[in-house]
Amino acid sequence: VAKPAVEIIEGCRLPVLRKNQENEDEWPLAEILSVKDPPGRKLYYVHYIDFNKRLDEWVTPDRLDLKKLQFPKKEAKTPTKNGLSSVPGSPERDVRKSLDLCVPAASAPSRGKTLPTPKRKAESVCLATQVSAAVTPGPSAEESQASVYPALRDSSFSIQPLAALSTNGTTRRLIPLPPGRKRKTCGGTDEMVKVFQNNDPRCSTIYMPPGEDSQDSSDGIPSAPRMTGSLVSDRSHDDIVTRMKNIECIELGRHRLKPWYFSPYPQELTGLPILYLCEYCLKYLKSLKCLQRHLTKCNLRHPPGNEIYRKGTISFFEIDGRKNKSYSQNLCLLAKCFLDHKTLYYDTDPFLFYVMTEYDSKGFHIVGYFSKEKESTEDYNVACILTLPPYQRRGYGKLLIEFSYELSKVEGKTGTPEKPLSDLGLLSYRSYWTQTILEILMNLEPEDGERPQITINEISEITSVKKEDVISTLQYLNLINYYKGQYILTLSEDIVEGHERAMQKRHLRIDSKCLHFTPKDWSKRGKW
């Protein structure tokens, strides 16, 4: 009697053949999320364990390694006090259940407490560990500061003249101040950054006591990030539908985009091979014929709203989520295809959208955008930020970030993006913060024949980057050293050369002279 074929069901885990970045075959472990049986052969929707969800895909049976098939654990019924039976779920479901018990319910979807998405590839930490860290109350400013800078609490911040300092084989000497000369500070709680003279003019060492409210961070964000955010996704309500991509392909102007994640487009459009979007108003249509008919009626050749910046072919448009609801909602639907860590609300009234476009003879084509709350109690200057895939790795992401901080400068505020950042977003922000801070430190000019001085608060005021982000970036770069009771920041020759190479490649920059922007006081405008 022939042995029956193994039936693969949802929840099974097994190795699946895929190509890596070097176009080599690999067999990572994957979970079967869905099975469909169209005419011909079965297809399986798989999620690669410890990989980003954007790599999820439908695969054919010939790519599955059935020899190492792992079936989901059987659900055992256990009696409870009220006589009802309970069924244990997956570890991920158990963690979510514990979160529901530990985390209070949100009163409003756009202001409630939410949980960051566990990172897949970047950190090999189990889900339970990440969630327990997320729901544990963060340390106070004093506790966090004591853990990062153990000797800081007992120091008097006085700078003693050093005869010589040897770091990385380079001898440096501190130039003492003349008698009776006092060092300048920006305030009683400000931090003094002291620049040391050294034999190599390309290297510099900086004295930097940390901020009072600094937090330990090895990845550019605080170790206990705030969970409050207007668009942070609450992963405790994930289901099998939202874990799967539902749009096969999007045609936007001259580009065809392959979505990375689920987006709540109407159900009747999710089965289409191609979803067509008008690149000017972002309206979605089911066929090319419908799109052609729409283009004869659509009068837009640029995003609605005010053009507040133009230099060359690059323009930025400011769009009010209350005045242009239809466009804002369509923009959010498109962005959700490429953002997994944010949720989507149809109430766009509290948000402003800044859309970056590229101009040609046919009109203004969308490149990317970022959104921000009209009023943010957390000093957020970005809620969501996205560069569309055809324009990625060309400097547009950093241009969006730079523009967001340029607006903060005009507003006279320091800002920070909403946490958590996506993996690509975190890389872009780290790179921007690094280049911006190093550019300031390397361009400091000496005063009265002495080495220049600068404080952390002054760096923050010049760049509009929040003080915590300045400190965490220096920590991430591992530039902070402790020497004879002082915290010093050492810029090695490798750091300097790497920065110069990066700046030579950075051709796109924001010109503040081309910005025509007047900030509004939304607190006096009632309900926006």
Automatic annotation (TrEMBL):
One of its GO terms (molecular function) is chromatin binding. This is Histone acetyltransferase KAT5. InterPro entries: Acyl_CoA_acyltransferase, Chromo-like_dom_sf, Chromo/chromo_shadow_dom, HAT_MYST-type, MYST_HAT, Tudor-knot, WH-like_DNA-bd_sf, Zf-MYST. Its EC number is 2.3.1.48. It comes from Sinocyclocheilus anshuiensis. The active site is at E418 (proton donor/acceptor). Keywords: Acetylation, Acyltransferase, DNA damage, DNA repair, Metal-binding, Nucleus, Transcription, Transcription regulation, Transferase, Zinc, Zinc-finger. The gene is LOC107702931. GO terms for biological process: cellular response to oxygen-containing compound; double-strand break repair via homologous recombination; positive regulation of DNA-templated transcription. PROSITE patterns: MYST_HAT. Residues 79-88 have a biased composition (Polar residues). Residues 74-95, 210-232 are annotated as: Disordered. Belongs to the MYST (SAS/MOZ) family. Residues 242-519 form the MYST-type HAT domain. Its main location: nucleus. It catalyses: (2E)-butenoyl-CoA + L-lysyl-[protein] = N(6)-(2E)-butenoyl-L-lysyl-[protein] + CoA + H(+); (S)-lactoyl-CoA + L-lysyl-[protein] = N(6)-[(S)-lactoyl]-L-lysyl-[protein] + CoA + H(+); L-lysyl-[histone] + acetyl-CoA = N(6)-acetyl-L-lysyl-[histone] + CoA + H(+); 2-hydroxyisobutanoyl-CoA + L-lysyl-[protein] = N(6)-(2-hydroxyisobutanoyl)-L-lysyl-[protein] + CoA + H(+). It is found in: Nucleus. GO terms for cellular component: NuA4 histone acetyltransferase complex; nuclear lumen. SMART domains: CHROMO (SM00298).
